[in-house]
Task: structure prediction
Amino acid sequence: MGQISKGRAYCSILAVIGFLAAGCSVLDAGPEHSVRAEWRRSYDLQTGGDVSVRNVNGRIRVEPATGRSLEIVAEKVGRGSSEDRAKDALDRIEIQEDVTPSSVHVETKFHRTGGSRDNWEVAYTVRLPSGAKADFSTVNGGLVVSGVSGAMRVHTTNGGITARDITGSIDATTTNGGIDVDLIALRDAVTAECTNGGITLRIPADAKATLSAATVNGGIRTTGLKLQVRDWNRRRLEADVNGGGTPIRLRGVNGGVTVSDR
Result:
């Protein structure tokens, strides 16, 4: 009986080796086809109006608008093991709108079917008018913001956050991914929280700020700034920058915190 079992095991091993040698793997069962479609909207938003975009799978990119109109462009992608299944996945992506003269809310919805293994994503590009109050979030994907002003909240679960040439307040949070923020001017409160990943903040050398930074596993470093330190150790820094002013709050868990001049 033992020899029979060994023989069967040997044959099974040979079968697996032959399967792999033929170029087959479990990964080959994944989606092979993709279908794309563009969704585009333009809105007349009141000055200082509210804008929010909620995504699930896919990144969000934000840049300044050339005029007063808000423009949102979404590239929807459906994937599947066949072209028909990819088209079906694409058809199940819905982008919902809730629009008033003073606010625009856009949200991604995906209508699942039982047992489906097809996948999908939506990549947004938002052209934001100056002074709008914005709230952007996604679950699986990064957030990239450049050249905008006004109060802004950005949140992702699995992805990094990059903000460049910002002049308004920013509240940035992520679970898995780093945060990198560069401010042209420090006019309003700055908050950044990250669980797994580092936090980097750059501010003008002459900015007046009240800085509170803390991390559990990772150091805190500053360069190029004039600090009046109240408390500083490896895990925590409380200090005034150029005498104190606009509040900056940085919180990390697994990753370092760096604050410097730009």
Summary: The longest helix spans residues 2-21. The chain has a mean pLDDT of 89. Residues 199 and 253 are 10 Å apart (CA to CA). The chain has three domains: 1-29, 31-136, 142-262.
